Amino acid sequence: SDVSLWGNLSDGRYIQGEANITKAGGNIDDIGCIPEDPPALPQAVEAINEADYIIVGPGSLYTSIIPNMLVPELVNAIAARQVPRIYICNIMSEPGETQGYTVSKHIEAIDRSCGQYLFDAVLVQKRLPSQAAIDRYLKEGSTPVMLDRKAVIDSGRRIVIANVMSENDTTVRHDPKRLAKVLVKWYERTQGVW
Asked: Are strands 171-174 and 28-34 parallel, antiparallel or unpaired?
């Protein structure tokens, strides 16, 4: 079904529409969708029910990751699966969405939005980007997402720290091959735990 995102910002504004939320340039306090509790695509629920491993991220926290967690059937399906479930945290914050967010703030936002604990682990980039990349991102209002280890551990999550970043002309991204290698290795380590 067609779904429209809305966001309540810390300055009291109510913004509707995915692109408008990011452009508004405020701190997001709450996010939801119209209609509330939209139905899940049956194939998505089926895929989750058959999954051996659930990976979410990276992506825009409030406009790409959390919208999926506003679908109760998807959240319930993920919560019911007794398989490794990992959230891949962004390397850099996003202006208009997560400026100033630490790793634990990303996790808190997901937990708050879906109303329950979904991910057992979080994958975090180990090494900071180059100073040239940091300087470039600072001009856009973006900073590296810092690991606040104690808060993440206190949330009950395991932390997977690895160098999964690629940097090209001061643009920072997750490297798909490095990321896949780390995810496969972590999955293999968790076998027998579930």
From this structure: unpaired
